[in-house]
Amino acid sequence: MSEFTPVVLSLKTTPSTELKLEVLPYGVTVNKFIVTKDGKSNDIVIGPEDPKGHVTQKYVNSIVGRFSNRIPVGTHAIERKGIKGEVIAYLNEGDAVSLHGGPVGWDALPWTITTTPQLFSEAEKAQIKALPEGSAAIFHLRSPAGDQGFPGTVDAEVLVALVPGFGETLGSAVIVYRAKLEEPNTVTPVNLTQHWGFNLDASLQDGPVTVQEHKLTIKADHIAELQPNSLPTHKFIPVSEVPAHAHAAKKIGEKMPHPGYDDYYLLAESLSSAALSTAPSRVPLEQLPTIDLIKDVLTPQTKAEKTIILSGEKSDLEIAFESNQRGTMFYSNAWGDAAKGARKKAHGGSGVPNAGDAYGPGTAAFIEYHHPIAAFLDPKNKDGEDTLITSDELYHNYVRCEVKVNAA
Fold first, then answer.
1. Which of 31, 135, 359, 361 is such that its CA lies 20 to 30 A from the CA of 59?
2. DSSP alpha helices (H): ranges in 164-258?
3. For the chain, what are the domain ranges?
4. Rounded CA gap, 13 and 367, in Å?
5. 13 band by pLDDT with thresholds 50, 70 and 90
6. In this structure, what are the phi and psi dihedrals at residue 269, rounded to the nearest 5 degrees?
7. Per-residue pLDDT averaged across 36-53, rounded?
8. Which 8-state DSSP code applies to residue 93?
9. pLDDT per residue over 161-180, tens digit each?
10. Would you state the torsion angle of the CA atoms of residues 44, 310, 324, 270, taken in this order, to the nearest 10 degrees?
11. Does domain 7-405 fall into CATH 3.30.70.270?
């Protein structure tokens, strides 16, 4: 299978209701996320017309790894549970930033489909198998020691699944990330996310492509303080002090800073702690045979509180998210350039690269759950959620995107 041939996952709950994902092995990229209700279809993620366009339109709906967001360029000593190592962060943004895992991150690599996953327990594999036929796939990648300057060989598996809905909910897209080190006595940072960008109205082709009229809720109480180059200071600012970042069903365009949003939101402590208590981001590797961390995630109706809600202004669609990560980046495609790349024909574009009708600023809402930026460099995280794993630990991260109709 070509890395640009989509793996098609579908879930039909009624003759006129369906969710469909097209996932590329290239970077586990969500090429399309199609919601069909009463015969009307909406592709709710932006992107190029040609799947190969993701090579140049980077970080559009792909995985990001080994490490999401930004790390200062240079050599960094790391230590967890007495095991020491070092990270050499390579430059790929500006003059001081290593972005999204380095020059050739996991977004730009071919993953393989596996039918014999090693990082899910037998109980978890049974639940995955019990999902409706054709609604789930697991992707695998082996990242060698030294890849982009990161220590240790990492085996990673990513479950992508569609889960049936309930009530007005059509269903959910679920992504579960697992990773472990191969070598003994090794430590490495791992902080994964899905860099997917949503526009719930674009398929209507009714006016300019924008999310500025979308309503957004982010249940966060702080945002990360950033340097001019977007590296973190490891300080956090109360949302109450910056009204532009108080998203409580606020229209994205209301009080939006120029040129848009590209900010990390720390979720309310009570919410992130509750999620991590039932779905920790690290577990002892020896517990892998007996764990079941996905039972609640794969059920039609979960108990977890939704921490982000996005609703379209013109469509009747609403998506709501949950995760076990401490926060999220919200990016409004602030640095998008309509002159570069292509826009899907389904979104009113020509589909032709560099034709001047691609996605400009404010055309998408990227929701990227992950632990804080460069968390392993913040001494306050020592022995806490520092994004480091050792050879005797399993990395676990999930995001669930629930699709609903007739949003209020």
1. 135
2. none
3. 7-405
4. 26
5. confident
6. -55, -40
7. 96
8. B
9. 999 998 889 999 999 999 99
10. 180
11. no
- pLDDT of 11 strictly over 80: yes
| pTM of the entire predicted model | 0.98
Tell me: pLDDT of 36 over 50.
yes
Give residue for tokens 């676990």. 396
How many Å apart are CA 271 and CA 233, to the nearest integer? 24
d(CA 91, CA 148): 10
Q: How confident is the model at residue 9 (pLDDT cuts 50, 70, 90)?
A: very high
**Burial state string for 81-107 with b = 16 or more CB within 10 A and e = fewer than 16:** eebebebebbebeeeebbbbbbeebbb
- 3-state class of 182 per DSSP? coil
Task: List the helix and strand counts (H, then E) for the chain.
Answer: 2, 27
Question: For strand 393-405 and strand 169-181, is the pairing parallel, antiparallel, or unpaired?
Answer: antiparallel
Nearest to 226 by CA among 384, 374, 78, 383: 374
pLDDT in tens, 118-149: 999 999 999 999 999 999 999 999 999 999 99
CA 183 to chain centroid, in Å, comes to 27
Helix (H, G, I), strand (E, B) or coil at 169: strand
Q: Would you say 108 and 121 are in contact if contact means Cβ atoms under 8 Å apart?
A: no
> In whole angstroms, what is the distance from residue 10 CA to residue 300 CA?
15
From residue 48, alpha-carbon distances to 146, 333, 334 in Å are 32, 14, 17
What single-letter DSSP state applies at residue 124? H
CA dist 323 and 225 (Å) reads 22
